[in-house]
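Let us practice reading a record.
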Amino acid sequence: MSEPVFARQMFRRAAIYGAIVLPPMYLAPLPPSGAETFLGFVGLALVFQVMFWIIGGDPVKYRALMPVAIAEKLVFGLPALVLFARGLTTPPVAVFAGIDLALALGFLIAWRRTPVVH
């Protein structure tokens, strides 16, 4: 069985990226309402970086988690781009949404390339 190098690199790099870009959001000014939602989003996103790291450690073993990882990227990326298209959010949000959609595509490719073990 070939080593799933692409999946390993895809998930490990995604985890490193998230671990770099998410923590500074804790220092951002909190919205006047919904601060708990904002902080919950950041915290949950950080938890997913741990999951990405684990998947990257053994993609074949954790292949079943890859669709969940794809969904995690889509639930922010798609709505954020729709909001941007409607003029309801800023260009930086759209950039990060685009990055999440690119990561979702990478995760999908990794999932398709990773062998199923029975």
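A brief commentary: The first helix runs from residue 5 to 21.
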